[in-house]
Amino acid sequence: MKKKIIAFILCLISFSGMAQTLRSSYFLERMPYRYRLNPALINDYGYFSFPVLGNVAIGVNSNMALSKFLYPRGNELVTGLHPSIPADEFLGGLKNKNNLDLDIDMTLLSFGFFAFNGFNTFDISLKSQTSIYLPKDLFTFLKTGQGDGGPAEYDFGNIAAQSNNYVELALGHAHRLNERLTIGARLKVLVGAGNIDARIDRMQITMSDDIWKIRSYGYANLSVAGVTLEKDENGDISGFEYDTPGIAGFGGAVDLGATYKLMDNLTLSMALTDLGFIKWNENLRGVTPEGAFDFDGFKHLGAEDDENGNNAFDDETDKIGDDLEALAKFKEDKAPSSRSTMLRTTLNIGAEYGILNNKISFGLLSSTRFSSIKTRTELMATANFRPAKWFMAAINGSVSNTGSSWGALINLCPRGINFFVGTDYVVSKFTPQYVPVNRPKLNLNFGINFPLGGDPKLKNKTVYNPVPGY
C-alpha cells in the first residue's frame, strides 16, 4: 500500500484542535465530561451516556495557514507547489517550524454516579492522536529546487510524524476531604491499536544537472498488529500490507487533580492528565541506509494541466506523493520485539470567580501539553452563564503558541436528557472554495447523555438541582 505523503498531509489539514474534552466546559458543573480535564471536578448530577454518541471530539491544531497550501485556479484547487503559484507567495506564509496535530476522541460508553462521599466515573473511549512536523526548508527545496536558479545544496532535517491510536478504559473518583478541598484520580488501562513514529533527523541533498545525491539520517517504527512490510527490488521498504486487525500493545496511565475553594466565590484547581505509557508488543523498524543514493529528480512535481486541460487536486497530490517516496529510503532493521511510548501529558491550572450567586462566573484556564515533537501552551479566558437550571453556556477567548481563537458552548439539561455542543476554536473566514484563510485551528464536540441522581451535597440547597426530585 503506497503512502501519498503530501496528499495525506493536505487531507488532514482540509478535513480535520487539540481535540479532547472541551476546555470551555471546565467551569460548568453540569457538563458530563469535564472531569477528564481535572478528575477532582465534581458534577452536580450523575449521568449515563448514549452509546458512541456520549462525547465525540474531532479537532485540528496547526500554525500553518491552509490558504498558503491550497490556491483557487478556475473552478479547482491547486497546491502551492504548482508552477502558477509564485515561490514568494507560497513560501512567505510558512513558518520556519511547521506543525499539525489531528486528534479524535470518541466515547463508546460512559457513566457517573455519587457514592463513597464523592463522584465516580467509568469510561470506554477510542482515541487517535497524530502529529506532523515539517521544516520550511523542505518546502523551499520542493518549490525552488526544481528551477535553474535553485541552490545546488540543501541541508535540513527535523522532519517527524507520530500517530498514537488506542482504546482507553478509565475508572475515576473525586473525593471531598472537607468543604474546601477536593482531590481526584482516574486510573486507566490502555489497549493499543497502533503506533507510528517516523523521523528524519538530517537530510543532505546535492544537486547537479542530471543527478541528485541524497543522504538522510532517520528511522521509522511501526507497531500495528497484522502488518507486514513490502520491499522493492533493492530491498528498500516501499509500503506495507494490513491484514487482520488485533491488539498491538497494553499500557496504563493516571490522571491526578485537586480543587480548593479559597473564598466562597473563588475556586482554584490544578490537574495532570495522561501520566502513562503504552508498551507495544509488535514492532517493525526501518532505518535510512548508510551512504548516499542517486536520484534523477522529480517527474511530476507541480505538473501543468494535461492535454485535456485537467489538473484535478487529487491527481496533483497523488503525483507529488509518488515523487516524494523517493526522497527518504528505509531498509528493514532488526528491532526489539517491544518498545514503549509515553502519552501526551497535560497540565491544567484553573481559577474561577463567581458573581450573582454564581449565575455568572469568569474563569481562567492554563493548559500545557507536553509532547516529544512540540510542547503546546494555551491560556483561555471564559465567561460562564447559568440563567436556568436546564440551560448553561460559555464563551471563551484563547491565546497559544499556535495562534489565538475564540469559541462557545451550549449545554441543555431538560428533564431526562442532556445535550451539549461546542467548540474551543472557531474558524470564521473562508475562501469561496470553503478553505479556511487563517491557521486551521478548530475543534468540535457534541454529546447526548441521560441524567441520573443529583449530588447529595446539594439536596438541601437551592443551587440548580439538575433533576426534579433530587
TrEMBL record:
Residues 1-19 form the signal peptide. InterPro entries: DUF5723. Residues 39-424 form the DUF5723 domain. Pfam families: DUF5723. Keywords: Signal. This is DUF5723 domain-containing protein. It comes from Coprobacter secundus subsp. similis.
